[in-house]
Amino acid sequence: QMADPFLYDTGERSHYGCLGHEVQIEHLKAYVCRPSFSTDKAVIVAHDVFGWRFPDIRYIVDLIAGHGYITICPDFFKGTEPWKSTDHWADFPDWMKNHDPMKVDKEADVVLKYLKEQCGAKKIGIVGFSWGGMAVHHLMLKNPQLTAGVSLYGRIIRDSEERYRLLNPTFFIFGEKDHTISLDQIFLLEDKLKQYCKVPYKIKVYPGQVHGFAQLKPEDMKPDDKPYIEEARRDMIDWIKMFV
């Protein structure tokens, strides 16, 4: 099943001049952007398969920081090569075996410790895109230190009831036309969360949107998609503001 591409068309991307800077935290490199005023609230951004240096992800880090959060995107791939748009699809399942979004606990702990000890963060949320959306879903089941999560088009992994016992409020964002996540899967997720989840959650599907829609920079958006992209980002920020 993993062999079908769950990437979006990276197409032509405009250059992005970042507002933050890179840091080394234990065994991880990370990109950090701070708001213009001091705060004890932070957000971790979990990147997609294109890794922590991808311009779209840095744009999102800066965007969240602009709303008043110390925002950090660690390299969850720990210095190994991210997926590249020139790589061959046949190799994707093998690449995924070595880049498992369910094996991010150690990295999350390193970043949480850094945010608390070095940045004075008291409340920390997490948002993740695609591969990172899967990582967020996993971490919201495992790590009570994360006070809220937003998972954007992370593939839905069905293995047990345990997948639905979220520890803290989690918001799931999907595109209606995502070729990797069917509406049936989304309805099933909703049913299961109703059954097992004891904390606030929300699922929202954005009309006409494809995989990866919410992280495009303004100059890379198509006019028809722009309102939905902006709405998804507002919704993401609102969820964070409500719980972090």
Automatic annotation (TrEMBL):
Residues 29-242 form the Dienelactone hydrolase domain. It is found in: Cytoplasm, Cytosol. GO terms for cellular component: cytosol. GO terms for molecular function: hydrolase activity. Pfam families: DLH. Gene3D superfamilies: alpha/beta hydrolase. Belongs to the dienelactone hydrolase family. PANTHER family: CARBOXYMETHYLENEBUTENOLIDASE HOMOLOG. This is Carboxymethylenebutenolidase homolog. The lineage of its organism: Eukaryota, Metazoa, Chordata, Craniata, Vertebrata.
